[in-house]
Each structure stands twice: as structure tokens, then as C-alpha cells.
Amino acid sequence: MGPYLSQPNKNKLTTTGEGISVIFAASEMQGWRNTMEDAHINRPDLVQDVSVFGVFDGHGGKEVATFVEKHFIDELLKNQNFKNQKFEEALKETFLKMDELLMTPNGQIELNKYKANDSDDSYAGCTANVALIHKNTLYVANAGDSRSVLCRNNTNYDMSYDHKPDHQDEKSRIERAGGFVRDGRVNGNLNLSRALGDLEYKCDSKFKPHEQLIIATPDIKQTILCPQDQFILMGCDGIFETLTHDELLNHINQKLGSALVTQELLKEVAEDLLNKLLAPDTSQGTGCDNMSVIIVYLKK
């Protein structure tokens, strides 16, 4: 059996919600893939003046993405830096905390509950792209190749960049850890240089967590939101395969038009975007992945 279904699964699971400063719609679709391995979080008004959204794109199985979806918010709320409103530090520590939890005996037991098969070992991981909005400041923490793009003055203001093994800094770290990059893949296998999980790449006791072949350490970008900021587009890499960031934002803006933005309208726009991005067949390889998208509209 290959990686694709004979016909795509176009069923969508869509969640909408609203907070004091945001309205959001999150939609996911399995598409052509045999299984669905994405997960996401949506928490407007998590605490006063703070909203958090995240996309977790699983690989090698759904279990790590599911685990992170379940635990990320709880661990963020426990974090002392989060309580002290030191959000960059809090996001970084919570990313690393996911790996710490996964490595515990209880974490391994829980991980096995989420697996699609009965094998003893899990070789799964997931990307993590998390946006935290505090008052008028947007923070985006990223590990992997899911993305956040801010629509600013009708054009794209990118809030993350992909972590790929052939980027020079990433490649240098991989080689220092005793690995190699071939065909854009770590040890010829994984096409990401940062991710949560993938614990088999993180077990060399000679190296610290940020020195391993694959690391969970996120890059974090922040910006002060302004009246020209309309919405944040978040998604797994499948969202960004076939259209440029500018084309994606233009499509969303056209669908939004000048209408009053509501949860129902954002739901329609998000689901329409998934339909547009889905490939008609699997011959090209793009538009065939699981797709998860979050549109976070910024109230004025």
C-alpha cells in the first residue's frame, strides 16, 4: 500500500471561536494521505490578555502530535516565565518540556495509547508552530516547517521560517553531532532539522538538547501588532506547497471581502481554502498532504 488513498478524504473537522481581541477558525482535512497525523490548539483568552494557537504536523505516526496537543497548554500555564509574562522564555521552555515528558516512562506509556499500531517503539515526531498574542504583541515560536504568516497591509509578513537540514547552521549542528545530510535529509531520513519527538535522534548523552541531531528548540519571532494587521494564517506545510504566501493571503482577503467577519464566515473561508489547495490527483506530489489551517482574525 502506498502513502495515498485511491480517492481523497475531503471531510473537514472545523472549530471556531472568539475572544476579546480575536475570532478564529481552525479546519483540518486528511486529504489524499492514508491517515491523519496533524493536531492543533486554539485558546482565545487563555488567560487575561493572552490567546494561544498552534499547529502540530505529525510524521511517522500521529502519536507525538496528539501528545503535544494534549499537554502543551497545561505545561505553558504551569510555566513560571509564563506567569511572569516572559513569553519568549515560556514558549521555549514549553517546547523543550514536551520532549522531557515524552522521554519519561509515563510519557512513553501514553504515547503508545495514541499509536495506530501495536509495535513497541515509536519513531514519530511533529512540527510545532505556536502563536501567542499578548495585548498588542504577537510571538511565534517555531520548530520545523509549519508556518505562521501575518497579513499586514494586505501583504505577507512572515513570522517563521522552515528548519531544513541543508540550511548551513542546521547542517553544521547535525555534523557536529555525528550525523550527515543527504538529499536534504538528516542521515538520509528525516527532512526536518527541528521537531518535537523523534527521540531516536536525541539520545546521545555527549550532547545537550540543543546540540542533538534533531532539536526541539524553537526560533521565536515577535512583532507589535498595528492597525494594518488583519489576520494570522497558520498551517502545516501542506497549506504552503502550491501557492505563495501572498497568493494565499489574497485568496483569503477576497473571500472575506468587506463583510462583517464572523465565526461562520471564517469557517467558510478556511474550508474553502482546503478545497482549493487539494490536488486533483497525486501525480505531482503537492496538494496531497494532510492539511490543517488556522485563520486568526484580529479585531479592530
UniProtKB/TrEMBL annotation:
Its cofactor is Mg(2+); Mn(2+). It is found in: Membrane. Belongs to the PP2C family. CDD domains: PP2Cc. It is a peripheral membrane protein. It comes from the Eukaryota. It catalyses: O-phospho-L-seryl-[protein] + H2O = L-seryl-[protein] + phosphate; O-phospho-L-threonyl-[protein] + H2O = L-threonyl-[protein] + phosphate. This is protein-serine/threonine phosphatase. PROSITE patterns: PPM_1, PPM_2. Its EC number is 3.1.3.16. The keyword Amino-acid biosynthesis does not apply. One of its GO terms (molecular function) is metal ion binding. Keywords: Hydrolase, Magnesium, Manganese, Membrane, Metal-binding, Protein phosphatase. GO terms for cellular component: membrane.
